[in-house]
Specification:
This is SET domain-containing protein. It contains 6 helices and 10 strands; from the N terminus they run ββββααααββββββαα. It is an alpha+beta fold. The radius of gyration is 20 Å and the shape is globular. The protein starts with a strand and ends with a helix.
Length: about 180
């Protein structure tokens, strides 16, 4: 994260970003172009507004990093990789309130499965990843990207279009094969 090596009078004299964290962040997928094509209002509401705000409010030393392509890439990575921070599901109707988003660079490398072996649990200010079952050596760790895990194949596939991929997890392939066999 950002570190202040010498802060006097609330002025930032030196800023460094963890090299590993920055490298991991740069590897994250960004569907910025696809998202903007699908939702054109994002170009104005996110990119233009955020870019203008950052240009006005960022310290002089960091101004060279505030360019449209970097801001668009960061927003695209957020839209693709962020985790929602939700209220605890104590409501009788099952509704939860979205408080915001957080981007955990390392956790963003978990792929999707409609039969996940890993879930994320919020405990206060922490996010914990918990195994749902025993896993084999070299088995991929997968989470579920959507809230449609209990829905049928068509609904799950439609929901996952927000991440711009067709799910080909074991469960979906099995259900597709069963559906095709019935035809």
């Amino acid at each position: 994260m950002y570190k202040c090596d010498n802060c006097e009078n609330n002025k930032l004299s030196s800023v460094s970003l963890s090299s590993l964290e920055l490298q991991i962040f740069q590897l994250l997928q960004s569907n910025d172009v696809e998202k903007i094509c699908k939702y054109p209002y994002l170009l104005y509401s996110y990119t233009n507004k955020i870019y203008k705000f950052l240009k006005i409010s960022t310290l002089e030393k960091l101004q060279s990093y505030i360019i449209p392509s970097i801001i668009r890439s960061i927003i695209g990575k957020k839209l693709t990789n962020a985790y929602g921070i939700w209220s605890i599901d104590n409501e009788p109707d099952g509704n939860k309130e979205l408080f915001g988003y957080s981007l955990y660079s390392s956790a963003s490398f978990f792929n999707h499965s409609c039969n996940p072996n890993l879930i994320n649990i919020e405990k206060g200010a922490k996010t914990i990843f918990k195994l749902l079952k025993n896993i084999k050596k070299n088995e991929e760790l997968c989470i579920n990207y959507s809230d449609s895990i209990n829905d049928d194949l068509e609904i799950r596939q439609k929901d996952l279009k927000e991440w711009f991929f067709d799910c080909l997890c074991e469960r979906c392939v099995e259900e597709m094969n069963l559906k095709n066999a019935k035809k």
